[in-house]
Specification:
- InterPro entries: TLDc_dom.
- It holds the Pfam family TLD.
- This is TLDc domain-containing protein.
- By secondary structure, the protein is mostly beta strands.
- It has one domain.
- It has no helices and ten strands.
- The protein starts with 15 loop residues before the first strand and ends in a 10-residue tail after the last strand.
């Protein structure tokens, strides 16, 4: 299985990759955002986003899911962490409306705006940690 996401040839300086470590096992989830993360309570529109999962250290078990609904690819809701459509969401166990913790420690995966499920279950689950990495292009000049 050759996993090359759509839109890889496009380059933007704002693109990020999010990695999520699931609590209690070796599972890693994540997603690619070719746009800038915003706090506008609007949808991010792109055909180039994708989400992925690694159930364990065996790369052959990886799942890649491209966005199929470009108008709902990214959700810029201010009360949550990174949200890839409605398919991969990070949020807090406490409601922001109740002025609870802003520690984003719960995730949910379900197939809505991307090609396929990246987990076997749609139930909420705890995460150990998550990180968002900005991807930048470096031009290296060699002295001759």
């Amino acid at each position: 299985m050759h996993m090359v996401p759509r839109g890889v040839q496009l380059w933007r300086s704002d693109c990020t990759v999010t990695f999520i470590k699931v609590k209690g096992n070796e599972e890693i989830l994540g997603g690619y955002n070719p746009l800038k993360w915003e706090t506008t309570d609007r949808w991010g529109i792109t055909e180039d986003s994708f989400i992925f999962s690694f159930k364990d250290k065996n790369v052959k078990n990886a799942i890649l899911s491209n966005v199929i609904d470009a108008y709902n690819a990214l959700d810029y809701i201010t009360s949550c962490g990174p949200k890839f459509g409605s398919d991969l969401n990070i949020y807090s166990t406490y409601s922001y409306r109740n002025h609870g913790s802003k520690a984003f420690d719960i995730t949910r995966c379900r197939k809505v705006h991307y090609e396929r499920n990246i987990r076997d279950t749609e139930y909420k689950f705890s995460i150990e940690d998550y990180e968002v990495f900005q991807i930048t292009r470096r031009n290296i000049m060699l002295d001759k």
